[in-house]
């Protein structure tokens, strides 16, 4: 059963809890023992990815601002990006991009901008996505109508 509103409510609650506990803050996390810190970081980045993905999908603003995050991003050499999930750092970067897509293309302030400005931002974000996911030669996106036309609808 698909319940997007329930998923959003759970995500918002998890996000608020993580931020209240300071899991996004390097200062508060520095006071936590190393083993617990790693688990807290795993939890925070999982909530972060859920928040960013759901917010874009549901057309809502993310509850976690990237500018508030001071803990380090995931790196491929981190012990929790082991072979079972080597793409985790790229997923976090992609979810960060999801937040920017909403803010720069679909958010209330973005909708006040000229279409040409939004189109240029969309193209820049698309090129960043290609950088995150690789060279783009393996994965292609087929567009049925001109890109600028899709922003009008």
Account of the protein in words:
By secondary structure, this protein is mostly helical. The protein has one domain. It is 62% helix and 0% strand. The chain has 7 helices and no strands. It has helices spanning 4-21, 26-29, 34-58, 88-106, 108-111, 115-133, 147-152. The radius of gyration is 17 Å and the shape is globular. The two termini are 29 Å apart.
The main β sheet shows up as: none
Poorly predicted ranges (pLDDT <50, ≥5 residues)?
137-153
User: What structural class results from the helix and strand content?
Assistant: mainly alpha
Number of DSSP-assigned strands: 0
The average pLDDT value, as a whole number, equals 83
The ordered string of helix (H) and strand (E) elements is HHHHHHH
Helix content: 55-70%
Backbone shape: globular
Strand coverage percent: under 5%
Radius of gyration: 17 Å
Number of domains: 1
For the termini, the CA-CA separation is 29 Å
Total number of helices: 7
């Amino acid at each position: 059963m698909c319940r997007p509103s329930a998923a959003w409510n759970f995500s918002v609650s998890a996000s608020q809890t993580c931020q209240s506990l300071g899991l996004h803050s390097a200062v508060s996390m520095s006071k936590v023992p190393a083993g617990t810190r790693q688990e807290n970081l795993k939890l925070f980045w999982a909530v972060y990815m859920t928040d960013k993905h759901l917010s874009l999908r549901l057309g809502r603003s993310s509850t976690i601002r990237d500018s508030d995050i001071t803990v380090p991003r995931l790196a491929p050499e981190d012990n929790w990006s082991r072979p079972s999930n080597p793409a985790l750092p790229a997923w976090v970067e992609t979810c960060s991009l999801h937040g920017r897509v909403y803010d720069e293309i679909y958010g209330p302030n973005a909708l006040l901008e000229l279409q040409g400005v939004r189109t240029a931002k969309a193209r820049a974000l698309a090129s960043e996505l290609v950088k995150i996911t690789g060279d783009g030669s393996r994965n292609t996106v087929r567009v049925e109508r001109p890109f600028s036309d899709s922003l009008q609808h």
